[in-house]
Design brief:
- The protein has six helices and eleven strands.
- With about 210 residues, the protein is α+β, with helices and mostly antiparallel strands.
- It folds into two domains: about 140 residues, 2-Layer Sandwich (Beta-Lactamase); about 55 residues, no CATH class.
- Helix 4 crosses helix 5.
- The longest helix has 23 residues.
């Protein structure tokens, strides 16, 4: 497999995984061309198509298209099964996966894919083993977050504990609050994915957005 793309019916890219070295410019060009090509095809048309010197295999699940590029000698039906197995893994983990699960938990979608595929080839055929690896990673992540949270001091004048919970744990890099003026600084990775407003109660009883 050369690469895998996940995109919505509106053409919004939700996940991309490249197994060949390409420049960012070339990746954007390929993505744009394939999204336009696949979305223009009718529902009853074949899920295989020839594109450049590759074969494109795609399948739609609900509002998401799963699109893979394979070499000419590769088997299209096996690629369809790979796509379906990945969807099954996502379903098992998220419970009837939807587009929002991919958007707000993209790091989990990538992690599941990396446990399933390595270098564009299937490395683990057992769904049970893949999900077990994900579960172990989640437990490790929770233990790390618990230890890191114990080192954060929350000032009594700033009511933001509940607000911090809306950020996925893996994106919470660090949080720092100053009790003197009620300000709070928080950094998330990648920061462009979230736009969150926090309110702190200052000593005069008013609230201020920070």
């Amino acid at each position: 497999m050369q690469f895998m793309l996940l995109f919505s019916r509106q053409g919004k890219l939700r996940l991309q995984k490249w197994y060949v070295p390409l420049s960012d410019k070339e990746k954007k060009k390929i993505t744009r061309e394939l999204v336009q090509t696949v979305l223009a095809r009718k529902p009853k048309m074949c899920s295989f198509l020839e594109w450049r010197d590759l074969k494109i295999v795609y399948k739609r699940y609900a509002s998401l298209y799963f699109c893979c590029a394979i070499e000419d000698q590769d088997n299209e039906l096996i690629t369809l099964e790979i796509i379906h197995r990945y969807v099954e893994l996502l379903d098992k983990y998220f419970g009837s996966v939807c587009e929002l699960d991919i958007i707000f938990n993209f790091e989990k979608a990538y992690f599941i894919l990396d446990e399933f595929l390595l270098g564009g080839e299937v490395q683990e055929t057992s769904k049970k083993n893949v999900l077990k690896a994900i579960e172990q990673a989640d437990l490790l992540q929770e233990s790390q977050m618990s230890s890191s949270k114990s080192g954060i001091e929350y000032p009594s004048s700033c009511r933001t504990r509940a607000a911090l919970k809306v950020i996925p744990p893996t994106l919470l890099h660090w949080a720092m609050m100053s009790e003197a003026d009620g300000d709070m600084a928080i950094e998330v990775e990648p920061s462009h994915q979230y736009s969150i407003t926090f309110y702190c109660r200052i000593t005069d009883g008013n609230r201020r957005a920070v």
